[in-house]
Amino acid sequence: MTVLTRTYMDWNATAPLLPAVRDVLVSALEFAGNPSSVHREGRAARAAIETARREVAALAGAESAHVTFTSGATEAANLVLTPDFKMGRSPVRVSQLYISAIEHPAFREGGRFDSGNVTEVPVTSAGILDIAAFEALLSSHDRSAGLPMVACMLVNNETGILQPVAEAARLVHAAGGLMVVDAVQAAGRIPLDINALDADFIVISSHKLGGPKGAGALISRGEVMMPKPLIHGGGQEKGHRSGTENTLSVIGFGTAAAVAARTIEAEAARLAGLRARLEKGMRLNAPDVIIHGEDVMRVANTTFFTLPGLKAETGQIAFDIEGIAVSAGSACSSGKVGESHVLSAMGHDPKLGALRISIGHATDEADIDRTLAAFAKIAGRRKLSGQAA
């Protein structure tokens, strides 16, 4: 019996655990103490967490004191997306949240803002934040009601397209507001610097870096203004996020961040070469393939494409049968395969459907070639039948 070789091409959904992280996690299982305890065992756990905090901060160009660990990026988003902030002990009110039309569901839901206080900012047909429309919205913001907050992803999770975050931040700060950046798909793939982005807060996730699931971080540029806590209790994480820290996942998160910081430039160049090989092969096998965002800046690991006549769900299943794991968009919606709000925001018919291939540190040329072989079969069946495969 022939065993089908599986090829994992869905790294934007989650990155397989890095070998270095696996080794660290095995040794970290020996930490017996609560990191809030003052005895030797507790101090050892605390020291490991603080090392991880420095490693995560370094990846983001931030100070370690400004890293708040959470259970993941979704919790970090819900922590920072709130109308209630404090500047020192003084309350500060944020009256309106502005989000781009292509945001991840964790941000599209608006966190702790009422739905009436969330405004969507359009994107261009190229999938990039419409700066002119954004500036017009900010200019009409009622400052007497409170400050504006803007949430925008640095890299779109479906298309891989880079967003003009620094330019948006300049505009929101001119309006006296706060800038929150979803850097989940950017961390480890492009250089990340909270100061260069002019962001007040950024959100990153462990498992997108090859770390364990169950850890994320909200990183601030300072501690002058901080959001009202989402989780109350023992006052851990400087009172910003109560609950005993997930020591194991946090340590793995730190190791993944350190590996990413060391390898980011070389890995980006390698992945760009692999993606070029993939997209060239796709064009050869299906000249009518639509590669979304190919004419604008994208991260090197992502290809988001449409094969006319092939439904996204059908295509995903077809690839899976061929032993290739690909995605039909965000993997953070309870396993549902629905219409892409990103395609819709770009002006495409969402029923058109699209598939995402995303690669990472373990991907090699053989993986690309196996994926192309599957792509050729699926595209060929589509052409022979004259309908969806």
* Rg over alpha carbons: 22 Å
Low-confidence stretches: none
Q: Helical stretch count?
A: 10
Percent of residues in helices comes to: 25-40%
Question: Can you describe this structure?
Answer:
The chain has 389 residues and is of the alpha/beta class. The chain has helices at 19-28, 40-59, 73-80, 105-108, 131-139, 165-174, 247-285, 312-321, 341-345, 365-385; strands at residues 7-8, 67-70, 84-87, 90-100, 118-121, 147-153, 178-182, 201-205, 216-220, 225-227, 290-291, 302-306, 324-325, 355-358. The strands form 3 sheets. Strands 2, 3, 4, 5, 6, 7, 8, 9 and 10 form a 9-stranded mixed beta sheet that branches. A 3-stranded antiparallel beta sheet has the order 11-12-14. A two-stranded parallel sheet has the order 1-13. The two termini are 26 Å apart. The mean pLDDT is 93.
Features:
389 residues, alpha/beta, globular
